[in-house]
């Protein structure tokens, strides 16, 4: 737990949880309006005394456009962070003091989030609490398959314990991944849901031979079909972790209960419609507004995530004090299946493509479509971007696919002015046509 244990709060009353949440929210708002020029202007001096629902929403586009005015630590500047991420070692701490993670999420729009080491420690403790509920103890043999990008949340924050090994990633070619898992024989397997479905199929086909008692998935929602496949492969109930780079643990389930318990001591989660109005329990929302109660260097208040989430109308089935989510849908990443160098077909997780884009700070937003003619990449770049960005990105994507064991298809990269979906449509970051 890194010296910080939060599981004692599972025994609190509901009133104790809400009292802590309100106190932390008030302190966050006071800090943000005192230290951030953006929040001082947008929220005003009376924000700590106003209902949260009356405060404005922060979009990813605004976060990046106003980055230097939003942050509260004078050492943080967007240009410096982008140079750090584009450097030779983006995985090292920035200035020896910050963990820097990037995200595209379901919108393909680049965002940068900086965590102090203390903030990263808190988020690891929240992850440990979720793991403990699922049955992961300090002695459990755990295999984590994270993103290949050194700037991904799984590498920068959740996996940044001193001396922690890099381990396997979603870009590890499937035969090597299977061999490594067979050797490690994990008691707990943690990976993205899309990759987990591929591994479940490998187990059922007799090519993978592991017996995990705990299987934890993140990045995408768990469909009923995936839950059935995990049960068929390993005889266990899958655990879901609802995470975002901007708030590393939002909610998590357990093998006994599929509802996801919201980590209300570290986040405020508002499920709203298209006009930012609360939706009733049991009704899917159009998006989620997240207020991160931990981070102070880069406060995120009512930050918009374009996920469709449903709040459970039922009491917490485990009897703990946390509100629950019935489902997390709309996180629309997609596994690509490409011809392999050594095997007929290779599954390629979207994080392989995202890791190839990460070193290009000029790329503000991107999306991929794979069809019979190749991999079609559309990108939005910032002002003054070098003319060779498409060519360099094309080469980087080809190299990333080859490193994952695939025979790279023809790759084209096209500059477009915008990638916003049509009204009412979900944005697909990676799509097979």
Automatic annotation (TrEMBL):
* MF annotations from Gene Ontology: ligase activity
- The lineage's top-level taxon is Bacteria
Provide the AMP-dependent synthetase/ligase domain boundaries.
Answer: 103-285
User: Signal peptide: which range, if any?
Assistant: none
Q: Is Cytoplasm one of the keywords UniProt gives this record?
A: no
DNA repair as a keyword of this entry, yes or no, is no
Q: Which UniProt keywords apply?
A: Ligase
Q: Which residues form a coiled coil?
A: none
- Protein name per the record: Phenylacetate--CoA ligase family protein
Q: Mind giving the lineage of the organism this protein is from?
A: Bacteria, Bacillati, Actinomycetota, Actinomycetes, Geodermatophilales
């Amino acid at each position: 737990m890194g010296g910080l244990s939060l599981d004692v709060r599972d025994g609190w009353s509901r009133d104790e949880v809400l009292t802590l949440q309100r106190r932390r929210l008030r302190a966050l708002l006071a800090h943000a309006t005192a230290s951030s020029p953006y929040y001082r202007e947008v929220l005003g001096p009376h924000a700590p005394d106003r209902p949260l629902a009356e405060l404005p929403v922060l979009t990813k586009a605004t976060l990046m456009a106003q980055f230097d005015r939003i942050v509260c630590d004078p050492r943080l500047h967007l240009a410096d962070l982008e140079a750090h991420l584009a450097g030779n070692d983006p995985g090292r701490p920035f200035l020896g003091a910050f963990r820097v993670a990037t995200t595209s999420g379901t919108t393909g729009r680049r965002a940068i989030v900086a965590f102090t080491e203390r903030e990263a420690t808190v988020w690891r403790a929240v992850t440990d609490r979720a793991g403990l509920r699922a049955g992961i103890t300090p002695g459990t043999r755990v295999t984590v398959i994270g993103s290949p990008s050194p700037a991904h949340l799984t590498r920068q924050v959740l996996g940044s314990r001193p001396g922690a090994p890099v381990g396997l990633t979603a870009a590890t070619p499937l035969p090597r991944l299977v061999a490594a898992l067979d050797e490690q024989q994990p008691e707990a397997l943690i990976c993205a849901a899309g990759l987990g479905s591929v591994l479940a199929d490998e187990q059922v086909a007799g090519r993978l031979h592991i017996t995990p008692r705990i299987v934890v998935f993140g990045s995408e929602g768990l469909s009923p079909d995936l839950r059935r496949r995990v049960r068929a492969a390993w005889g266990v109930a899958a655990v879901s972790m609802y995470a975002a780079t901007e708030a590393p643990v939002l909610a998590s389930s357990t093998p006994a209960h599929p509802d996801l318990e919201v980590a209300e001591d570290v986040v405020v989660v508002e499920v709203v419609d298209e006009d930012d109005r609360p939706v009733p329990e049991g009704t899917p929302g159009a998006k989620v507004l997240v207020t991160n109660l931990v981070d102070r260097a880069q406060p995120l208040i009512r930050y918009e995530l374009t996920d469709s989430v449903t709040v459970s109308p039922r009491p917490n089935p485990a009897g703990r004090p946390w509100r629950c989510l019935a489902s997390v849908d709309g996180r629309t990443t997609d596994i690509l299946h490409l011809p392999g160098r050594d095997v007929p077909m290779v599954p390629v997780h979207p994080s392989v493509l995202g890791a190839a884009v990460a070193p290009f700070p000029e790329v503000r937003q991107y999306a991929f479509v794979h069809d019979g003619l190749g991999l079609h990449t559309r990108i939005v770049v910032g002002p003054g971007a070098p003319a060779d960005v498409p060519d360099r990105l094309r080469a980087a994507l080809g190299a990333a696919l080859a490193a994952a064991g695939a025979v790279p298809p023809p790759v084209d990269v096209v500059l477009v002015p915008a990638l916003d979906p049509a009204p009412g449509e979900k944005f697909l970051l990676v799509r097979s046509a």
